[in-house]
From TrEMBL:
This is Glycosyltransferase 2-like domain-containing protein. The keyword Signal applies. InterPro entries: Nucleotide-diphossugar_trans (IPR029044). It comes from Sinanodonta woodiana. It comes from the Eukaryota. Transmembrane segments: none annotated.
Length: 354
């Protein structure tokens, strides 16, 4: 059962990366088949001027929730409802909802309506129309522009998630505990993940008794960056974009084989995370994952319909990826000073730091 769940997840993730750019009903890149290094895409990204967005985030916040969406009004509505029901402890909360545009510059009106009509009683809500089509890269890389003295926590949420009422409680605790560790590049909220090493099977989990673990690969089903590492990663990304021969390939992991497939087919624009994975690998950085019993998560992913799953996945996709934390237990706060580290095969990695 667990094993087959792992397989299903692998297929789901691949398919999501594959179709993400094409869920867009207006999508119309014409990719030249003789553009092996996707130069076309890099030029587009450079034109986005990742740091040039003038909409500086001026409001002071303890938590900035960044919701990225395009044309899935119902999904957005479901996510916003879960955000409304979460606990915020009277802190200063900003909810940024970022709407991408089609290649033709259109905002999806239904999605806009859901975003603009949503009442957020816990803080400030701001709906941002992107000024042009930015795709999934721009949505992730250009929506959080913290000032260098900012201590706000940010979390980036794609619209096919819902959050646990306790997601912010968790973020406060883990940021406080682990932001100081130089190797921690952020916090994933998902309770379930594949193992990324090629040939590994089953779901990723740390030995019983560990509330968290460190893992080399980012989990994108709700991710809260460590500001220091995030800025470093974005700086690096901008530099590497200039090198047309560079590809972010990390040996022996499944995402690399997906990315290689996408290079061949000119579809790498669905997989920004490969760059993050590469950067983490080169810099020996890790993401902190929760390790609750039964793969409970601070988010769940709804494996959005509209994507062409096979019958097995279609069956699975009627339900979310896993269950949410709906009860808080004191034990969740028993965080070790130095979390256990797993390698991409899910084995405890005992190797000392260099
Ligand atoms: C998509 O792009 C191709 C090639 O530029 C063009 O011929 C076609 O009309 C476009 N389709 C749409 C729906 O814009
Ligand atoms: C954002 O797009 C919506 C939908 O097209 C439009 O009604 C609204 O005025 C736009 N907002 C801004 C600030 O441009
Ligand atoms: C950060 O710096 C700006 C400008 O110097 C200042 O207005 C702001 O209060 C500072 N914020 C924090 C959290 O210290």
């Amino acid at each position: 059962m667990k094993c087959s769940q792992g397989k299903v997840l692998i297929v789901v993730m691949f398919v999501v990366f594959l179709v993400q750019p094409f869920c867009n009903k207006f999508f119309n890149y014409s990719v030249s088949s003789n553009a092996p290094h996707n130069v076309w895409r890099r030029i587009e990204l450079r034109h986005q001027d990742l740091y040039g967005d003038p909409r500086i985030q001026n409001e002071i916040a303890d938590l900035r929730i960044i919701v990225i969406t395009y044309n899935r009004a119902d999904s957005l509505s479901r996510l916003l409802k879960s955000l409304k029901n979460a606990l915020y402890f009277g802190d200063r909360i900003v909810l940024d909802i970022w709407l991408d545009r089609s290649k033709d510059g259109l905002i999806d009106e239904n999605t806009y309506r859901i975003a603009s009509e949503f009442q957020f009683k816990h803080g400030v809500k701001i709906v941002h129309n992107h000024t042009f089509h930015v795709g999934i890269y721009g949505q992730w890389l250009n929506t959080w522009t913290p000032k260098s003295n900012s201590s706000e926590i940010a979390v980036i949420l794609e619209d096919d998630l819902t959050v646990s009422p306790y997601f912010y409680k968790w973020l406060k605790i883990v940021h406080k505990k682990y932001d100081k560790l130089v190797e921690v590049n952020g916090y994933s909220l998902q309770g379930i993940s594949i193992k990324h090493g090629i040939g590994s099977e089953g779901l990723l989990e740390a030995p019983f008794g560990n509330i968290v673990f460190l893992y080399p690969v980012i989990g994108t089903w709700g991710f809260s960056p460590n500001r220091r590492n995030w800025v470093k990663f974005r700086d690096w990304f901008e530099v590497m974009l200039q090198d047309e021969k560079f590809q972010p390939l990390v040996p022996n992991i499944v995402p690399t084989s997906w990315y290689e497939t996408f290079i061949k087919t000119g579809k790498t624009e669905g997989m920004w995370s490969m760059w993050h994975i590469y950067h983490a690998w080169k810099s020996r950085e890790y993401t902190v994952y929760p390790n609750f019993a039964d793969h409970l998560g601070l988010t769940v992913n709804w494996k959005e319909p509209g994507i062409h799953y096979g019958p097995e996945i279609a069956q699975e996709s009627k339900s979310p990826s896993n269950n949410l934390i709906t009860t808080w237990r004191a034990g969740y706060e028993n965080l070790p000073e130095n979390p256990i580290r797993l390698d991409v095969y899910g084995n405890v990695d005992a190797e000392e730091d260099p």
